Every structure is written in structure tokens, then in C-alpha cells.
Fold each of these.
Amino acid sequence: MDFLVGWIAIVPSYATPLLLASLGLIVCERAGILNLGAEGLMAVGAMTGAIAVLSGVDPWAALAAGAAAGTALALLFGIATVVMRADHTLSGLAVVAVGLGLTGVVGRPYMQKTFPGIASLGELFGIERTTALGRSVAVQDPVTLAMPVLVALLWWWLMKSGSGLRLRAVGENPAAADVAGIDIQIAQLGAVLVSGLLCGLAGAYLCVATSHVWVEGMIAARGWVAVALVIFARWNPARALIGALVFGSADALVPRLQAIGADIPVYLAMMLPYLLTLVVLVASSIAGRASGEPSFLGRIYLRQDKH
């Protein structure tokens, strides 16, 4: 029972970075821009958040700094793909390389220095931990508590609002959206910046709220898991929440097994989230074009000027 309660309690903190990154990718790809750079965006966000906290900045401001850093790197990706019309796949991989390389150089002096994180609900409101529910709730933080609200708002915006409909139109049929008077480049660039903001926030959360330390390579392919999670969710924010909990549960299993001293190979247990990722990618490849995938995803739109 203690094992189950402890496992359930930490799942949201493991699911939150994956959910934030996948939501950012959903917005970006709904506009037709294939974004494979989540790993680099998260790494930059994590490093910036750590540097901010170690420089004496409030942890909440550090989360904002990480989000801003992810947005800045995403701007370069947006200029390449939206303005210069570069190949989306190559540009995304370049973002990963730049992000990981930048954090390896700039973040090295700040490695393995612990720092305080954001307060949990138990610390903020004095929630008692005498019951299973109290133990599960007390360890959560305001960010994890806000995730269902963010998912609901994003789902409503994409599916029900006029601006969300225009964004989806850009990803489905940019030529028709162009004729309807939608500025394709503005819509796509805005979507790319949102993806950078949420991916940067995801990395900063992982570092500031969960790990409380910066270590090079700490993103550990979670950006690629987020890419698979978008496919699993079929570009739907509500399904992304479910997927993040599934992937997060697999990721959270490792520290719980270590805590109880289970005689299970640690590296085998650490494979679980990445094994799920491979299963999702293989299944989507076998099934062909995934349901919900934007029709113009990853393609370059060349506007035909009228004379």
C-alpha cells in the first residue's frame, strides 16, 4: 500500500514536463510546423532555470526565465522554417544540437549545485500527511495542480474558438487559409513561439521543481518522448494528459523501486518509458497516417501570388 501511494504521489511531477512539452508541440504542429527540437528547447530551459535560481532569483521567476530561453531558441527555429522555408526535420535536429551543445558549454560551471525549488502544496497550506490522500496531495505543487486547467483551456481554444480554428486551418490547408485572409507566417511563427515557451517551461520545471539540481544531459530524451506522446495523443490536448500520465507512471516507477530496494535491474526499469515510445512510433508507422494528424504537417507552403 505504501508503495502504491508513494508511486501515485510522484506521478504528476514526472508527467508535468512531458505534458507541457507535448502541449507546445501540439500547438506548433497544428499549424503545420513539424517540431523535432523539443529535446534542445527543454535542455535550454532547464539550464536557464538552474542558472537563474543559483544567481539568487526566485524559483517562480526561474521558471519564467527557462520559458523565455526556450522561446528565444524557438524563434531561431521559426525563422528557419517559417521565414526561410528550411526543411522542418533538419531544422528541428539542428535545434536539438544547438540546445544540447549550448547547455554543455554555458551550464558546465553550474553543474551539480543543489538549490531550493518551488514550494509544494503541503508546505504552502500545511496539509497533513496522516492519510493516503493527504500524502498524495501534499507533495504536489501549484504547477501540477494547474495542468488539467491548462489542458482544458488549450483544448477549448483549439477546438472551439475562432482563432484556434484559424490555426488548425493553417495546418490543414494553408492555401485555403491564405485565401480566407489568414496571415500564414504570423500564425505559424506564433505557434512555434508557443511551443518554445512550453518546452522551455517543461525543462525549467524538471530542473527547478523536481530535481533541484542541474546536470548536463538531465533531459534524458524526454523531448523525444514528448514527440511520441503527441502522436499517441493524436494532436489532442485532452488525450495528451492521459498519455503524459501513462508515460509519467512508467518514469516514476524507477525511483519507487529503488526506494523499496526491489531486486530488479535499474537499467531495465529505466527502459520502460523509452520502450513505450518505441511501441507508439512503431504502431503509428504500421497504421500509416495517424488519425488527427494535420494534413500539411512538415510541408513547406509556397504562396502563389496573384497578378
Amino acid sequence: MITRTTNPEEQAGYKPGSEKDSAITIKGIREGLLVTLGDGDWETLQERLLKQIEEKGAFFRGARMALDVGNRILHAAQMGALRDRLSDREISLWAVVSNSPVTERTAQVLGLATRLSTPKPERVIRQMDTQLPGEDAILIQRTLRSGFRVSTHGHVVVIGDVNPGAEIIADGNVVIWGRLRGTVHAGAQGNEHSVVCALEMNPTQLRIANLFYAPPSKKKNKGAEMARVVKNEIVTEPWNTR
């Protein structure tokens, strides 16, 4: 069993730490993305953040964002304007973290969270519960809850749901006999022939090989679906489970 350290920003072609992004740090957390603003004028940093979002639209689209503004004092008009501009780009601002009591009260008035949850210790499924004949696979007969992480060179079959905060990384296919609402990366070694199947497809993040799936902003449950690569793009189609 090999556990890989994944960095969603780097996987999407995003390169934090570059000169133009030196005052803006973006990283993945359990609840979505955490954006930390360094030194600089609020209006300038806001525009630079929005520019980065536009340059990497597929990576940010549909994301839940928490914003750490440090000691900045922000009022309702400033914070509300940014929230609306992010919403126009299909990004949900759900939390603003600050050392300023004024900014914290402003966020609360706007209905935003002001604290991030304490990460739970990562629980990794290390042992193969059973093996399907012919190919290496992990069969998991339970729901994967937040904090669980599965990593394997073979396939993964889950009889149960994959909840937000749970993660599956497989070099082969991922089949979920339940709801997919967490993170899945199939074909992790670059195999674009891998597929992801679920009875309900509503992932936090889905990847096949080096491609990202960008779900519609208002995706309705279409029943069982299969995600696969077609012409260098991940598409979903009905999954005939019979």
C-alpha cells in the first residue's frame, strides 16, 4: 500500500509561490479551499485573486472557499462585494477568518463562518478486505466518512457511500454502489481508460489520470452514472447497473 501526498493546486496546473502569487496562498482543506492573503492593499489583492480564478477556471469552479484576511478590517460592503463576485464565478465564500474583531463581526452578520474545523486524524484503509479474481482490487463494505483515505495500485469497489471529506486514490477503476460526494482520483498513474461509477455522482472533486471533472453548477441527480475520458475531457453518462 502506497500513500501519496496529493496537492490539488499543483495537479490542476496551479503553482502557488510564484512571484505574481507571493501575497496569495491557496491550499486545499477538508471543507474546500483556504485562501490566505499576505501583505498588500485589499483592492489590489482582491483583483489579483479574481484574476487567478479566471486563469484557472476549471480548478476553482464549484469550490467552497474560506478566506484568511489576517489583521485586515473589512466592512460589510467590502466583504459582500467580494462574496458576490466570487458567486458570479461559481465559487461559494463560506468563511472569513481574521484576527480583527470588526472583520469577524462583519462575517457573522453576513452569515459566514469565522472558524475552521479542527482536522481529524487521517484514517487510512491499509488492508485489502478481499480480492476479486483476475485483478487486484479493494472491496469496502461500508460508508467512507470524512477523514478516511484509500490508496491502492488496483481498483476500488465501495458498497456504501463516499461522504465529503473522504478520499479514494486508485491506479485503476473506482466503482461506488452508493453516493459519491467525496474525492476520487481514478487512473492515478495516468491511465485515461479508467472509469468512475456511482449510483449518485455528486463529487467534491473527481479526477481521471491528469484530468479534472468540472460538474455543472446546478447538477441534478440523474441516477447511476459513469465518468470516463472522451477526447481529453471527462464526461458522465448513464451507468447501466443491470
